[in-house]
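Page 42, continued from yesterday. The earlier attempt failed because a stray header line got pasted into the input along with the sequence. Redoing it now with the clean sequence only.
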Amino acid sequence: MKHCIYKFSKIFFVGTIFTFMLQFPCYAFSQDAINSYNKGIEMTSREKYKKAIVHFQKAIEKEPEFVDAYYNLGILEEFRGNREKAIEVFEKAHKYKPEDYEIIYKLATLHYTTENLEQAEVYIKQIPPEDPHFKRIVEFMSDPGENIFSVSRKDDIEETKEETKEDVEKKLNGPDSCETLENNISEIKAPTGIAKDSEGNIYVADFSENSIIYISNDGEQKVIARKGLIKGPIGLAIDKYNNLYVANYDSDEIVLLPASGKAPKILPINVKKPYFLMVDDSGILYVSEQANNTVSKHKLIWKN
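This time it went through. Structure tokens are written below.
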């Protein structure tokens, strides 16, 4: 006997807002499994995620091929930061439904964010180029199926300069005073983050206008990104290749503006209310997260 159950295909966590899409497929599952599944849906909608996980696990125990239960369980594990556990869950779902591109997409992105690039590539190759999930992969990965990386790299050769005694003293003692310069940057409604690239250009985030302003080293000022992916920008950071990173406070995202001039893209990492950013020369992106009261670390991967 077939029973109709609820299925939500995606979960979006933005602050305390929960959104899910309802469909009404029918499967030959036991009523007990369906009841546990729907209880998991209810607990998720009430933001009681630990209880939701328990109910999805019960649904799977009663029906080991309950793919939708695996999917929703995987989403919740990923949201809670348990990426390895989420991968394990999605791989079980993939076993029972190997041509589900949403599941394959989740596996590709999870392996990517855990730096298992070879396995991410394996899953990317399973998605046909004409499928919408392939386009979603391309949005934050370049050359999928060949090389997988998050930002473009410029060739750079840095000249090593020996420090003088005067340089060492300045480093240890800091500046003796501070002089305010003229020619202030103006006409920015709500400036927040600021960063400077290796060529002396300045980038300023404007929170109220959802924009990023570029000021060249000769004083030229222009908006290089407005709205679209930019949503409540606060912190800015620039890596050694002059790629710009934006902390989207309102959308819980980190946006990359490539130095190459390519379209901005969202990095596939989970953050909650990102505030300040920093990127070191080894490729570690540090994010201060207000909602989690923590500073998270994320490894950036460049194309050779």
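Notes: The radius of gyration is 23 Å.
Reminder to self: strip header lines before submitting.
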